[in-house]
Amino acid sequence: MWTSFHLNQPRAAKQLQARSILRFARSRHHYIVGSVQASGVKTIVIVDDEMSFTELLGSMLGEHFCCPILTFGNPLTAAEALPRLNVGVLVTDYYMPHINGLDLIKQAGNLQPPPPSLLITGHTFEDDEDETARMPHFKAILPKPFRWQQLASLIEEHWPAGETPPLRKK
User: Fold this and answer.
1) Mean pLDDT over each residue of the chain, to the nearest integer
2) Quick one: what percent of the chain has pLDDT higher than 70?
3) Of the four listed, 8, 60, 80, 85, which is most buried by Cβ atoms within 10 Å?
4) What are the backbone angles phi and psi of residue 100, rounded to the nearest 5°?
5) Which of 11-15, 30-34, 111-115 has the highest mean pLDDT?
6) At 59, which CATH number?
7) What is the dihedral of CA 12, 14, 18, 24, to 10 degrees?
8) Is 60 exceeded by the pLDDT of residue 65?
9) What does the alpha-carbon distance between residue 146 and residue 120 come to, in Å, rounded to a whole number?
10) 3-state DSSP of 64-82
11) Is residue 117 part of a domain?
């Protein structure tokens, strides 16, 4: 089974190459995750089963942020990789095969510290207030369609407390 990753890396990072689309067998994805983890920089993680949307979103956000942006088309692969990443913000779609975005956000709550998490969805989403109240790292729901600048604003707003969001200088 192939998993597609889009890694948008900061131009200033000498140890990382420029933006690229990498395609690896599932067993080899650890190389990418390890490279991002080794950089010590917080990463924006985007999970959506619509890879063309995810890759485009990663590219657009890469023009705004100067940190690695790692995209996953499979939520199970993302869940497996999250503990090895230094996640700044997790952005996930709600309706995906295998597990939904809310379940992925719940799993991310086990990380220390749990990353601020944003849910994007093209469907009506009834927020279960009891469930989301038990997930203080769950920050917002952004309905599709949206402008990438709206998502960028939410990422900036919910970047981990005490840290400056890694914005590109204009």
Assistant:
1) 81
2) 74
3) 8
4) -90, 170
5) 111-115
6) 3.40.50.2300
7) -140
8) yes
9) 9
10) CECCCEEEECCHHHHHHHH
11) yes
